[in-house]
Design brief:
Layout (H helix, E strand, L loop, with lengths): L14 E6 L2 H12 L3 E3 L2 H6 L4 E5 L3 H13 L3 E4 L12 E5 L2 E5 L6 H12 L6 H10 L1 H7 L3 H12 L16 H7 L6 E6 L10 H9 L2 E4 L5 H4 L7 E4 L12 E6 L5
Parallel strand pairs: 1-2, 1-3, 3-4, 7-10, 8-9, 8-10
Antiparallel strand pairs: 5-6
Length: 264
């Protein structure tokens, strides 16, 4: 279970309320302007113009509470600087590889921790990662032509983007290999892999097992397999309950069979 639902909100050309003065308010203004939003510094004006978000950065506690209540009653989502109890949403630490954006949040627990994680990830993600995303977007018609079946298309892309794949996103310059991949890629085949769990803790999965779950088309689970482990699979992967010793052979794609800890 997660405590908050991460969302990317388009605000380009839209009014966004930013109230307050000082460093915190200026930081919020810069953030809104960076995303193309129109900063409105009067609460009623922002409400009248149809703003959907309000950043409140008053030093005074009573002023912050009053404006937060007023904005929320008008139907706006509120972020109040350094007052998580007044927040409907929090602002993550952002790693920018436009159009790839990584948002790292701690639910308001520690902005310093989010920043430290972002800085660590900055060293891992190539500067050209955004070019790969743009190239993949432009290549969508070619991919549909090459793999008319959506499942085949997704499996081919998963393999190419995987560790060591021709489009490995952690390798700088992967965008330059896209044409070669489209011209020479082979169709994906059905694959069936069994994973015998070591425990009910998803943290005990190996990196390979976690990647397999994240790419699987169908998950067959023995009764009693921990939901926390199953949750590591793709949200759109089909879930099946294994009622016999062997899963059926009539399904296509990457099939993962999850067995309880201690099973051979």
């Amino acid at each position: 279970m997660i405590d908050t639902l991460p969302l990317f909100h388009r605000i380009a050309g839209q009014p966004v309320i930013v109230l307050g003065s000082g460093d915190a308010a200026e930081a919020k203004r810069r953030l809104v302007e960076r995303a193309g939003g129109l900063v409105i510094e009067d609460l009623q004006e922002g409400i009248d113009k149809g703003a959907r978000l309000a950043f409140i950065a008053h030093d005074d506690e009573k002023s912050a509470q009053a404006d937060a209540v007023r904005a929320r009653c008008a139907g706006l989502l509120v972020n109040a600087a350094d007052r998580p109890e007044l927040c409907d949403f929090v602002v993550p630490s952002i790693l920018d590889r436009n159009p790839v954006l990584l948002a790292i949040g701690t639910g308001g627990a520690s902005a310093g921790l989010a920043k430290a994680l972002r800085l660590r990830l900055e060293t891992l993600l190539p500067a050209r990662l955004g070019r790969l995303a743009d190239a993949l977007y432009q290549a969508r018609p070619r991919m549909r032509s090459r793999w008319s079946d959506a499942g085949d298309r997704r499996r081919a892309l998963d393999a190419a983007l995987g560790e060591g794949g021709v489009l490995d996103p952690l390798v700088d310059g992967a965008d330059a290999a896209l044409d070669r991949w489209l011209d020479g890629a082979e169709d994906s085949a059905t694959e069936r892999i069994e994973i015998v769990l070591r425990s009910d803790d998803p943290e005990d999965l190996t990196l390979r097992e976690a990647r397999l779950l994240g790419s699987a088309d169908v998950i067959w689970c023995e009764p009693g397999v921990a939901p926390a482990v199953i949750d590591r699979a793709r949200a759109d992967a089909m879930r099946r309950t294994l009622t016999s010793e062997k899963a059926p052979d009539d399904e296509q794609g990457l099939i993962i069979v999850l067995r309880q800890p201690g099973k051979d």
